[in-house]
């Protein structure tokens, strides 16, 4: 079995971390940005481990039998171009780290930490010296979690001690889950408008699918409270880029924190054109939610387990159904 590990810059040693490989397997590694190396090696690969698998890669993988995706879901996979016999598995292990990052971004926004840090570096020692607006206390406020899968549930667990009301949206809501997680409300897709209107902070954890692409657009953002905050730790395109930029520049939203990138997601044809980096009300991080020691260790362990299961002819524990 020929295994190809497509390593991003943060996982250059991934192949060595996966050794020893299953008996009879041969492994090699190529950098995600090495177009020539991908073109040479993907046509021979029977198993691939990668962070994403866009059309430019899927078209080359004519012998693919197993694709294991790490790093945060399997929505960056061109399923329609894969061989029909190819099995796709998406490993987890990053949920706790992404949830912690979501909370960190939430507090950075509500406490106005970036502006406060810049003011302190300029020599300001008191809030009045810097002209800082008061922060927003989370206690007594409402936090809406858009998407209540593994990451969304971890966000809710970490919010519980902060005395805020938590609303969540899930494709198939579960009454038991609402009570177990201590939510004020858990609703389905029809609950979206209510959740948006009630939220002082909206945390986006939805995967990117045809149904969720652009789910939060101009109409939805307009329903949010004036002065609300938005935190996105899932995929950029769930929130319409132009609509978000307008909501921020118009002052309707007080701030946003984005651990996502509109141009990074458009792998084959970057399309981002809004200058979020020029807005003082926006916190930007380069998809570091899952970039922690614990998350990376757990993901590598899960990748190794999926390869071993496949080699033994056992059912994989994280198979992704094709759209």
Provide structural commentary.
- The structure is a single chain.
- With 323 residues, this protein is an alpha/beta fold.
- It folds into 2 domains: 114 residues, NAD(P)-binding Rossmann-like Domain (Rossmann fold, 3-Layer(aba) Sandwich), CATH 3.40.50; 190 residues, Rossmann fold, CATH 3.40.50.
- Helices cover 33% and strands 17% of the residues.
- It contains 13 helices and 12 strands.
- The strands form 2 sheets. The chain has a 7-stranded parallel sheet, with helices on both faces. The chain has a 5-stranded parallel sheet with strand order 2-1-3-4-5, with helices on both faces.
- It starts with a strand and ends in an 11-residue tail after the last helix.
Summarize the structure.
By secondary structure, the protein is of the alpha/beta class. It contains 13 helices and twelve strands.
Cα(first) to Cα(last) distance is: 27 Å
Task: Compute the average pLDDT.
Answer: 93
> In CATH, what is the class of the largest domain?
Alpha Beta
Question: What form results from the Cα inertia axes?
Answer: globular
**CATH second-level architecture of the largest domain:** 3-Layer(aba) Sandwich
The low-pLDDT segments are none
CATH topology of the largest domain: Rossmann fold
Radius of gyration: 21 Å
* CATH superfamily (homologous) name of the largest domain: NAD(P)-binding Rossmann-like Domain
Widest β-sheet, arrangement of strands: 8-7-6-9-10-11-12
Counted beta strands: 12
Strand-and-helix sequence, N→C?
EHEHEHEEHHHEHEHEHEHEHEHEH
Which class best fits the helix and strand makeup? Answer: alpha/beta
> Proportion of β residues?
15-25%
| Helicity, as a percent range | 25-40%
Number of domains: 2
Major pleated sheet: 7 strands, parallel
Number of helices: 13
């Amino acid at each position: 079995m020929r295994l190809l590990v497509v390593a991003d810059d943060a996982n250059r040693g991934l192949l060595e971390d996966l050794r020893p490989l299953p008996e009879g397997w041969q492994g090699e590694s190529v950098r995600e940005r090495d177009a020539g190396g991908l073109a040479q090696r993907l046509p021979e690969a029977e198993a691939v481990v990668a962070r994403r698998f866009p059309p430019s890669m899927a078209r080359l993988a004519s012998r693919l039998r197993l694709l294991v995706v790490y790093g945060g879901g399997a929505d960056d996979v061109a399923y329609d171009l894969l061989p029909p016999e190819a099995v796709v598995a998406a490993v987890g292990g990053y949920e706790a780290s992404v949830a912690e990052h979501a909370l960190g971004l939430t507090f950075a926004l509500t406490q106005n930490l970036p502006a406060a840090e810049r003011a302190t570096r300029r020599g300001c020692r008191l809030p009045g010296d810097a002209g800082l607006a008061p922060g927003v206390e989370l206690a007594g406020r409402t936090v809406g979690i858009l998407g209540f899968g593994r990451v969304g549930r971890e966000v809710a667990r970490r919010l519980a001690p902060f005395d805020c009301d938590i609303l969540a949206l899930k494709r198939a809501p579960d009454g038991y889950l609402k009570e177990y997680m201590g939510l004020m409300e858990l609703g389905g897709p029809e609950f979206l408008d209510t959740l948006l209107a009630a939220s002082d902070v909206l945390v986006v954890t939805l995967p990117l699918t045809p149904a969720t692409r652009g789910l939060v657009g101009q109409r939805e953002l307009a329903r949010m409270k004036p002065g609300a905050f938005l935190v996105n730790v899932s995929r950029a395109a769930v929130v319409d880029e132009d609509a978000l930029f307008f909501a921020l520049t118009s002052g309707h939203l007080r701030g946003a924190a984005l651990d996502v990138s509109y141009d990074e997601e458009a792998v084959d044809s970057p399309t981002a054109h809004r200058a979020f980096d020029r807005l003082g009300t926006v916190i930007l991080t380069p998809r570091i939610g899952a970039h922690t020691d614990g998350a990376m260790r757990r993901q590598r362990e899960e990748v190794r387990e999926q390869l071993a299961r496949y080699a033994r002819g056992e059912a994989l524990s994280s198979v992704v159904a094709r759209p």
